[in-house]
Amino acid sequence: MNEVETATIYDFWCAVWTIGVGVGYDCYVNRPRVPVFLNWYLVLAASSGTTRKSTAVESALAVVAETARAVNFELHGEYRPTPGRLTKYFDKEREGYLAVPELVTVMGREPYMSGMPGALTDLYDGRRGFLSFLSASTPTWLVSHINQAVIEGGFTSRCLFIVEEQAKRRIAWPSGGDQAELVDGLTTLMTQAKKTHSISVNKVAMESFTTWYSSRKEPQDEYYKSLFARADDHVLRLAACLCLNDGTHQIQDRHIGYAIQCIDDVVSRGGSLFAVDALENKARLLGVVDKVRRVLIEAGMDGKQHNLLYRTVVRKVSTQEFHLLMSIMHEIGCVQRFEIKVEKGRPKTVYRATKALESAGLTESILSRV
């Protein structure tokens, strides 16, 4: 993916995901009583069009489609994936993966889709089946749909949200890359994994893992607390994928060290979306933007003076934040801004809605620029 405009962190995690899909049930970390299988739940998160999220998902999907014995549930099913169809699929099948470029496809607001986080949570631990999940979304959509109930239900502790807003670089004419080489590499890895089957942890790595595990302090925020309970699983799962990738087939100290750094980084990035403060702040701004839209649309061609418009949201937003939001809305062409001269005093600023103010996805576009 070096010559493609995807974020480097997406390339890394999508590669890890393909390893997990490839080895399936054949390989696991032999932790006593609670073995760790290598299925991943990953959601790539960034504003629309900035980091090529869908490209990253589709590239990973193309590789596993030619190698994995598991079935892409979305293609296997005749209709859109639903909680009921997903559960029914695993009543008959042992393995599968679900990779969709847009998370809204499987977690929309429709009543029949509301159970999807619960269905994915139930399948994660491998007791009913072996499912790997990969998707992508925008931060604004995630914040409005992944609420405290979903966090407390356990989905966010199992799913890693890979947040990045910068592509590796701008590439005017991306090269195709050699997918056949990737497919061959994953096929070889899968063959070796079948022989390894059980992945052990060497003595030095075990000491590092134990030291890290024992020294952690439990956080208070619900999002961080949910991940705290499963961070050790994620570290071991990533360390196992790394040792399979480099051919050592045993978790060593460097694998544990890299895995801890990577998981800590992912947790920290996810906190910018789902920690209580972040959720409350984004929900507040969502409300402000929606209120401003309604007021300006109702005002029609007459528009609304700056001070009168601000009064409608004054309890939810500071003066500085309001100025920023209105500047963004003006820049992207969803409001017009006029200066009206008065006999005494400074000119009055008036905002008027344009047709773009009613377009779908506008709130998401505005908040992505805040």
Q: How many domains, in number, for the residues?
A: 2
* Number of separate helices: 17
Estimated radius of gyration: 24 Å
Any guess at the CATH architecture of the largest domain?
Answer: 3-Layer(aba) Sandwich
Instruction: List the helices and strands in order.
Output: HEEEHHHEHEHHHEHEHHHHHEHHEEH
Straight-line N-to-C gap: 30 Å
CATH class categorisation of the largest domain:
Alpha Beta
Secondary-structure-based class equals alpha/beta
List the helices and strands and how they pair.
Elements: H1 8-23, E1 28-29, E2 36-37, E3 41-45, H2 53-65, H3 73-76, H4 83-92, E4 95-100, H5 116-124, E5 130-137, H6 139-145, H7 148-152, H8 155-158, E6 159-163, H9 179-196, E7 198-199, H10 203-215, H11 222-228, H12 231-245, H13 253-274, H14 276-299, E8 304-305, H15 306-311, H16 319-331, E9 335-340, E10 348-353, H17 362-367
Parallel strand pairs: 1-7, 3-5, 3-6, 4-5
Antiparallel strand pairs: 1-2, 8-10, 9-10
